[in-house]
Amino acid sequence: MAEPPPVNDDMRKQQERLGKGERKQTMPKLPASYPCVRAVDLDQNTIVAITVGVVSIAVGIGIPVFYENQIDSAAKRENTQPCFPCSGSGAQQCRFCMGSGSVVVELGGDEKEVSRCINCDGVGSLTVHNMPRQWHSTSLP
User: Where is this chain compositionally biased, Basic and acidic residues type (predicted)?
Assistant: First the structure.
């Protein structure tokens, strides 16, 4: 059974006045018992949720910082590997015309149309100077 709330000085004075025949004043009614508030009242699910939130924030900050450091260190290091498409020669055979400089289109029957390759401008190979800019990272002179 719940124990009654503790009596403070104001309540005691009111009770004394009522005992002497004074008119009763309406006071706010106090709850039968006060809820017990603990500083730490966490269950296992709350602890897991808080831990996951903290780890997510740490990962969200840590991964971009890690990659930024890797990019910075790679930029400082000299690249000694040859270009993959041209093997370091600076030129590669055009894949559209297979190095011939012209493209043959069969129109039907025995008719064929021969036109200059639009990829290499009829040269037959792509060099750093006539490659599209997105294919190479070196600056053009």
Answer: 9-25
Rounded to the nearest 10 degrees, how much is the dihedral formed by the CA atoms of 50, 54, 55, 57? 140
What CA–CA distance (Å, rounded) separates 16 from 139?
97
8 A C-beta contact, residue 94 and residue 124:
yes
Strand 111-116, strand 125-127: pairing: unpaired
Tokens standing for residue 95: 């894949």
Instruction: Tell me the C-alpha distance between 15 and 20, whole Å.
Output: 9
Q: List pLDDT tens digits, range 29-79.
A: 666 666 665 656 678 888 899 999 999 999 999 999 999 999 999 888 887
**Which run of H or of E encompasses 18?**
helix 9-19
